[in-house]
From TrEMBL:
Binding residues annotated for substrate, in chain numbering: N273, G330, I331, V332
Enzyme class: ligase
Annotated Mg(2+) binding sites: N208, D222
UniProt organism field: Persicobacter psychrovividus
Keywords: ATP-binding, Ligase, Magnesium, Metal-binding, Nucleotide-binding, Tricarboxylic acid cycle
InterPro entries: ATP-grasp_succ-CoA_synth-type, ATP_grasp_subdomain_1, Succ-CoA_synthase_bsu_CS, SUCC_ACL_C, Succ_CoA_ligase-like_bsu, Succinyl-CoA_synth-like
GO MF annotation: an example: ligase activity
Family membership: Belongs to the succinate/malate CoA ligase beta subunit family.
Ranges where the ATP-citrate synthase/succinyl-CoA ligase C-terminal domain occurs: 271-385
Protein name per Swiss-Prot or TrEMBL: Succinate--CoA ligase [ADP-forming] subunit beta
Gene3D superfamilies tied to this protein: ATP-grasp fold, A domain, ATP-grasp fold, B domain, Succinyl-CoA synthetase domains
NCBIfam families from the UniProt entry: PRK00696.1, sucCoAbeta
HAMAP family with a match to the protein in the record: Succ_CoA_beta
ATP-grasp fold succinyl-CoA synthetase-type domain ranges (all copies): 2-210
Length: 396
């Protein structure tokens, strides 16, 4: 589950990570009041306004502005709030900005120039370890650094059974070229970031940039946290952090029905039981000349209700020209799924696109018979090749 920057910073602050003072605003008027409060609390005279959407690269699209005084805050907030912000991560359609944060400017002058650092913690699935990634090239896309200057990326693997060791935090801080007070502060910063990562069951914590200020303070200027959905039962308070307006409406609807759904850009809707089978089904669709319109896993306990919910979600995509249902009857019986397909078809009413149902496993023959005798515009298939041929014919 993705959360907003302001929410991520609040979480990190609770773990001792230094973050800029910030206020949330949904209107220009509230933004001005927030700036005045920040001035009273921090004496900052310069304010940073940042759009809150679930996408990076906001500055490139005009979603980050600097206000040199309180008077400028209203004007800039009015420009950002309500805009359709397009970034490299939103696609050409962009995302509407509903809220911003107003924060203090931490790039204050001093004896030395500030520097920006990249830092993240995530799971390295290949090694079965957490990995801390850091780079002196903060403030830019880490993908560009990895491609152009990979030697500038520092990696330190952490055994999750024993956790981050003190020497590892020191190793990363030294590798960043820090010394003195900045070194000490960075060691503490890395330690607290990892504590937060483990404590909240995150799948990723990314700070870009981490600011080494002119007084050697180490500050999380930005923050991105992805929470592990499978661990939310241990953090019920985090469920309230979900912003459904930032998610695809069909994906939100699917999650409410207990379906795993991801919208894609193709023309063949697919409904399967099991993630592995879903990936194989999507490959099969491509080999047959189509493009998958979605990833939809109804789970091992597929029934009439889940099948109907899946149908309704897929049919809301105007690009779908055919639907492929591919079910392996292990836990679930194929005849029950077939009955669910027929029932869902009747409940929904007129469906103008062909539906191919491939059933294999427990009671597959009985399921195929139910489909064939239903009199509906549903094609039954047993073999994977047969299903592929049916998809190919449907797209002609």
């Amino acid at each position: 589950m993705n959360i907003h920057e302001y929410q991520a910073k609040d979480i990190l602050k609770s773990y001792g990570v230094v973050v800029p003072a910030q206020k949330l605003a949904e209107t220009p008027e509230v933004a001005v009041n927030a700036a005045r409060q920040l001035f009273e609390e921090t004496k900052t005279a310069v304010f940073v306004l940042k759009a809150q959407i679930h996408a990076g690269g906001r500055g490139k699209g005009g979603g980050v502005k600097i206000a040199k005084n309180v008077e400028e805050v209203y004007q800039l907030a009015d420009q950002i709030i309500g805009m359709q912000l397009v970034t490299p991560q939103t696609g050409p359609e962009g995302k509407k900005v509903n809220k911003i944060i107003v924060s203090e400017d931490v790039y204050y002058p001093g004896a030395s120039e500030p520097s920006e650092i990249y830092l993240s913690v995530l799971l390295d699935r290949a090694k079965g370890c957490d990995v801390i990634m850091a780079s002196t090239e903060g403030g830019v896309d880490i993908e560009e650094v990895a491609e152009q200057t990979p030697e500038k990326i520092i990696k330190e693997w952490v055994d999750p059974k024993v956790g981050l060791q003190a020497y590892q935090a020191r190793k990363v801080a030294f590798a960043l070229g820090l010394e003195g007070l900045a070194l000490k502060n960075m060691i503490k910063f890395i330690t607290n970031i990892y504590k937060a990562y483990r404590g909240i069951d995150a799948s990723q914590v990314e700070i870009n940039p981490v600011l080494k200020a002119s007084d050697d303070a180490i500050i999380a200027v930005d923050a991105k946290i992805n929470l592990d959905d499978n661990a939310l039962y241990r953090h019920k308070d985090f469920i309230a952090l979900r912003d459904e307006s930032e998610e695809d409406p069909l994906e939100v609807e699917a999650s409410k029905s207990g379906l795993n759904y991801v919208k894609l850009d193709g023309n063949v809707g697919c409904m399967v039981n099991g993630a592995g089978l879903a990936m194989a089904t999507m490959d099969m669709i491509k080999l047959s000349g189509g493009e998958p319109a979605n990833f939809l896993d109804v789970g091992g306990g597929a029934n009439a209700q889940t099948v109907e919910a899946g149908f309704r979600i897929i049919l809301q995509d105007p690009n779908v020209k055919a639907i492929l249902i591919n079910i392996f009857g292990g836990i679930v019986r194929c005849d029950r799924v077939a009955s669910g397909v027929v029932e869902a078809y009747k409940n929904i009413g007129q469906i103008d696109i062909p539906i191919i149902v491939r059933l294999q496993g427990t009671n597959a023959e009985e399921g195929a018979k139910i489909i064939e005798e239903s009199g509906l515009r549903v094609v039954s298939a047993i073999l994977l090749k047969d299903a592929a041929d049916c998809v190919k014919e449907a797209l002609v």
